[in-house]
Amino acid sequence: MAEGRIPAERRRRRPTKTGVVLSEELIVDCALRLVGQHGPDALSVRRLGTALGCDPSALYRYFRGSDEVLLAVTDRLIGEAMAGFAPGDGTDWAAGLREMARRVHHCFSAHPRIAALAAYRVTRRVHEFRAVDTGIGLLRRAGFDAETAVRHYAAFIDTVLGHAALDAAHLALAPELRRADDAAWTQAYQDLPDGSYPELAAVRPHLPLMATGSFAPAVELLLSALAAQAREAAQASGRGRGPRPGRGGTGSS
């Protein structure tokens, strides 16, 4: 049993006052809906109980508190992101990591008000276990040894989650605030005096690019760096290709 999980014998399926039968899945559905509508403050046992038509204490048969609900919600998002993704032995490792990154970013964009809460948590649940297993497996396929694969996966997923949470936070802004931030690059930054900001003046025509998002370029930069380290390791080993898993490799700087 994962740490913090409620024993099965305590999770009895009882109907609420409205006749709804509680379950972990139903509670997570409700939590996602509440946060999507009202923001992170809606993720409380009291508000969940009200929305589900039950005494809040009934939720403690399934979760130990609102933080455990958050972990279950986060794991649900990971499951949504990774659904149907099972790179086979013939899948190029870089293409596999690129697809993982795209899926995480897309899922966070679909749930922007929960993304900032979810990005930095460790769920200790099955969907996260499978995602980490898949990502590290792709890096071992690139030829990195066990330790290096773990270090590089940490750098990869932190980069992906950081950008995904940042873009999701932008999407969660009120529309007028989002428009004002995006317009800054075509308005406020264009009016700055050349003498005070010479470097900005030199690149002024390109400053609107700052509003287009940096997720995809950041992923490509990281994948290029990983590929370069794999090539360097292959050259150092003299085998003409990346080191086999568990038999040497590059170290993280």
CATH architecture group name of the largest domain: Orthogonal Bundle
What do we call the CATH homologous superfamily of the largest domain? Tetracycline Repressor, domain 2
| Domain unit count | 2
Number of beta-strand segments: 0
**Helix/strand order:** HHHHHHHHHH
Overall 3D geometry? flat
Nearest-angstrom radius of gyration? 23 Å
How far do the termini sit from each other? 37 Å
Work out the helicity level.
Answer: 55-70%
The helix count comes to 10
Estimate the strand proportion: under 5%
* CATH topology name of the largest domain: Tetracycline Repressor, domain 2
**Strand count, sense and closure of the main sheet?**
none
Structural class: mainly alpha
**CATH hierarchy, class of the largest domain:** Mainly Alpha
Spans with pLDDT under 50 lasting ≥5 residues?
Answer: 240-253
- Please tell me the overall pLDDT: 88
Note down, in words, how this protein is organized:
This protein has 253 residues and is an all-alpha fold. It has helices spanning 24-38, 45-52, 66-82, 93-110, 112-118, 126-141, 146-172, 175-183, 198-202, 215-237. The relative contact order is 0.10.
Key descriptive features of the protein:
253 residues, mainly alpha, Arc Repressor Mutant, subunit A, Tetracycline Repressor, domain 2, disordered C terminus
Question: Which SSEs are present, and which pair or pack?
Answer:
Layout lengths: L23 H15 L6 H8 L13 H17 L10 H18 L1 H7 L7 H16 L4 H27 L2 H9 L14 H5 L12 H23 L16
Summarize the structure.
Pfam families: TetR_C_1, TetR_N. With 253 residues, the protein is mostly helical.
